Amino acid sequence: MAKSKGKSGRKNEDPNERVVVRNRKARHDYELLDTLECGIVLTGSEVKSIRNGKVVIEDGYARMQRDELWLINADIAEYPQATIMNHERRRERKLLVRKSQLRKFAESAQDRGLTIVPLSLYFKRGIVKVEVATAKGRKTHDKRQKLKAKTDVREMRAEKLRHS
Fold first, then answer.
1. Confidence band (pLDDT; 50, 70, 90) for 1?
2. Where is composition skewed (Basic and acidic residues) in this entry (predicted)?
């Protein structure tokens, strides 16, 4: 039995998974090489703000510090109802990854001079997860070529539909 498409239009979408925010700019600015799902260490007010969708990861990136992976410059808005224990908006947040995965993932990024960018932030069975990717920056002319190729494919598909 085939699963129906969910809100995002993807097949086989997990009903226990809810994407809060996607970094669409990353797919345009970078050539994505390898992805990894990570947990993230958060405070209670941060989780509440994420549930409300008050998070921006476009400017964020991940970096290795002291043999750990940290998410830097991700903006999680303060939770208005938290009066005493609110959080800093752009603090560094630790990403939770198995040592073996981290070693393989981070070493390849450091050796080849790649960036680690967050692709999406989502809930999976009630737990906040971050999908990160090692990425190689695209030059402006590469971005133009990619957009042109995408437009050409779209036009060919439309032409094919008209003639059938």
1. very low
2. 149-164
